[in-house]
## 1
Amino acid sequence: MDSTLATFEQDVIETSKQIPVLVDFWAPWCGPCRTLGPMLEKLETEYAGRWRLVKVNSDENPELSAHFQVRSIPFVVAFADGKPLDQFLGVLPESELRAFLDKLLPDAADTERRAALSALRAGDREQAREHLKAALALDPDYDISRLDLIELLLDETQVEAARLEMSLLSPLTTQGNDARYNAFKTRIEALEAAAALPSAEVLETRLTANPADLDARFDLASRFIAEQKFEAALEHLMEIVKRDRRYGEDRGRKTMLAVFELMSYAPERVSAWRRMLSAALS
């Protein structure tokens, strides 16, 4: 595929969010380019869609050449996830080209996870679930895919299935300080607690009668977390922090941090809440 300044964004940046892209800066007068180009084209065919070759005529696209500081050709830049990751200058032996490519290419489990994320963006949750299960079948220790699956299950209120997947996570995740793990643990606990908790109306009545009832306040926050009403939960958790930092061994602050992770889709709101928490703790 040939690309120009007008199509580079779509041909390279957007495409590399799906599969790696190699950009070959070349020119018709360049002898080494005529050697490297066919080698790259052969490997692109051999790798059967696992990466894409994009060719840029450096003479016809001086803006792109200047942007990537192309001073000699052939010059190859590798892109993944929308960003340039690696590069080389000149003609490499085929064995070195293969090694260069193999470093860029995701393994089979990662390929399945990328497919799952694409399916989620397209709104196909069932297909996403199948790709995540395939990724875990290839690599049972691939915790990032298992966390993705847990999030999908929680969004569907499949608490028992999510808890089972949580039990299969590696100790590195469960015993460390993984923010997503802690967030999902908090959400599971809230969903399970909500089944036995009084209604929100009963808890709010208790708080009206006694605003210092921190147990009622935490129970209400848990119910809001289970219902994904995260900002309402944060209001009560913040009040717990302000009234008694020691409550439940700092339970208010710790739960707020977990909710921040659950609200990662709203970074500006999370930043605002983090500032409020910092002010309350100072």
Note: Strands lie at 21-26, 52-57, 75-80, 83-89.
## 2
Amino acid sequence: MTTRTLGVVMNGVTGRMGYRQHLVRSVLAINEQGGVALSGGDRVLLEPVLVGRNDAKLRDICERHNVKSWTTDLAGALRDPDNQVYFDAQVTSARVGAVSLALEAGKHVYAEKPTAENLDQAVELARLARRAGVHNGVVQDKLFLPGLLKLRRLVDGGFFGRILSVRGEFGYWVFEGDWQPAQRPSWNYRAEEGGGITLDMFCHWSYVLENIFGRVEAVTARVATHVPRRVDEAGRAYEATADDAAYGIFELAGGVVAQINSSWCVRVNRDELVEFQVDGTHGSAVAGLRGCRIQHRAATPKPVWNPDLPLTHSFRDDWQEVPDNEEFDNGFKVQWEMFVRSVVEDTPFPYDFLAAARGVQLAEGGLRSSAEGRRVELTEIVL
């Protein structure tokens, strides 16, 4: 067995997601386990080069985690032939320019979603990546959540029979920032900086629906800015220009109808911050981040609507928990390992920039549906 090293330029690791999920829980965790295992038994260690605008923050992260290299010069890091992969976790508005530079430099590129603020830019990145002949991928982390992996297992096993519908609820109350600090950065609520829950979450729903139930063919949506005024990290009040809630109906290939509510203005009254209920002719399931409960048609109760009598039956008790049956690793780390294998072994990576463009297309379609008050059909993207 031999061990090789792969240089990875990581841009945006001073942010919460880039630091915690991608640097600490993925790249560094991969190295701690001895690297990415390849099909032939060899292993690949990752050599991160941290890039950003704040040299003090970069230096601090490197010192805390024993990372050797950091720089504020992205172009210089991309010129280094030892750095073969570029990763981007910046704010959305900064992504297109940096990813384009990396593609022009011939680097393999792995990026957070959305890859761009609009469909034209997302498609152009996919075309640039294809012309460059490099491996390209987008983070689609929710596919690797234990709850959704169990849901996928049920679909593959034919548990549902004919799937009829999917209903999703996502969100939580994000504090306005005045009497309690907000849990999300203020740029999320500024459209001019790439903010908005539709652009953020519809990209997620695109790949979740596509990979488990079927590709989205049409969308009808209503978006809203329920909280119009918030307070930023410096204590300054500002007007929210981006949407903080989106209510969508998605028509899928094969006839399945999905309804998903996404909101940063909802107080949680469910078991997890995101839940999906899937109903089929033979059974139903409710999946969250980790858990998944099922009810087969043979065990389905027979409710009778009678508002004159108190309800004594506990419907939650009629559901059965799906067992783990395996150990689930961190979803971000799993996908990093997949992308590294794709690069080193020169194999296809399924979640590429074209898939990312479909997510942006869905978000753009949802915003247009809301603005124009109509159903929007999604055409096939051709590169």
Note: The chain has two domains: 3-141+331-361, 143-328.
